[in-house]
């Protein structure tokens, strides 16, 4: 693929899951297909025992030569009990929750230019001691 740059992986100190990455074709969940779209998830804030709200940053990278308007990232809870999910920057994306998954789709400003990335903050509340999410 022309212009492809190998993604950099980062491990967060104190974060049980670190960073999850998945790639997929446009409109996919990021778990199958080509490598035109890369979804990367990172826990950026932990609410802790009393607050029970964590913030995850989802980075959507478009490695294609065309603007991407119809992307979808599916996040799965692998540990803990999620009670809610929303997006801070609703102009870029929206989130819907069903069971143990969160589906993030673009909002009015969520188009990703060719070779560009956007970052979406996904806020997850939980009733357990913590929650672990991964890109599916």
Structure description:
The protein is an all-beta fold and 136 residues long. It has a single domain, classed as Sandwich (Immunoglobulin-like). 3% of the residues lie in helices and 47% in strands. The protein is built from one helix and nine strands. It has one helix spanning 48-51, and strands at residues 19-24, 37-45, 53-62, 73-79, 82-87, 93-98, 101-106, 117-126, 132-135. The strands form two sheets. Strands 1-2-3-8-5 form a five-stranded antiparallel sheet, with no helix packed on it. A four-stranded antiparallel sheet has the order 6-7-4-9, with no helix packed on it. Strand 6 (93-98) and strand 7 (101-106) form a beta hairpin. The radius of gyration is 14 Å and the shape is elongated. 32% of the residues are buried. Residues 4-33 have low confidence and may be disordered.
Question: Would you kindly provide a brief summary of this structure?
Answer:
This protein has 136 residues and is mostly beta strands.
The total of helices stands at 1
**Overall pLDDT level:** 79
Q: How would a crystallographer describe the biggest sheet? A: 5 strands, antiparallel
* C-alpha termini separation: 23 Å
Report the helical percentage. Answer: under 10%
Shape: elongated
